[in-house]
Predict the structure.
Amino acid sequence: MSNYLVAMEAAWLVRDVDQIDDAIGVAVSEAGKRLNQENMEYVEVEVGATGCPACGEPFDSAFIAADTALVGLALEMDVFNADGEEHASRIAKSEVGGALRDVPLSVVEVFETEADEDE
C-alpha cells in the first residue's frame, strides 16, 4: 500500500459575471465552500492553467461569453494506503465528486509520495 497525490481538474460554471478575476474568485470560493461543508478541507483548490496555443505560456483557465464563465479549477488531494495509482485515482474522484455533484471532474496526474516516518 502506498500514498499518492492525485491532481484533478474541474469545470466550474459561473453565471452573471463580466470580469475574469471575479469569475475565478467565485469559482474557487464556491468549490471551497462545498468541499468544506463535507469536511474536506484537505483538498487544495486553485485556478487551473492552460497553455497558450501560440507561445506555450500558461494563463488562467477561464473564459467568459454572454456573462457566463467557464473556470478550470485545479484540485489536489492526498490519498493514503491505496493499492496503486488507479485505486488512488478512483478514491480521489469518488470523494471529491461526491462533494462537487454535477461538476465535471477528471484526474490529470497521480504521483506516488513518500510515507511519513510516523506511519
Observations:
- DSSP finds two helices and seven strands in the chain.
- The CA atoms of residues 1 and 82 lie 5 Å apart.
- Residues 20-37 form the longest helix (18 residues).
- The helical segments are 20-37, 85-99.
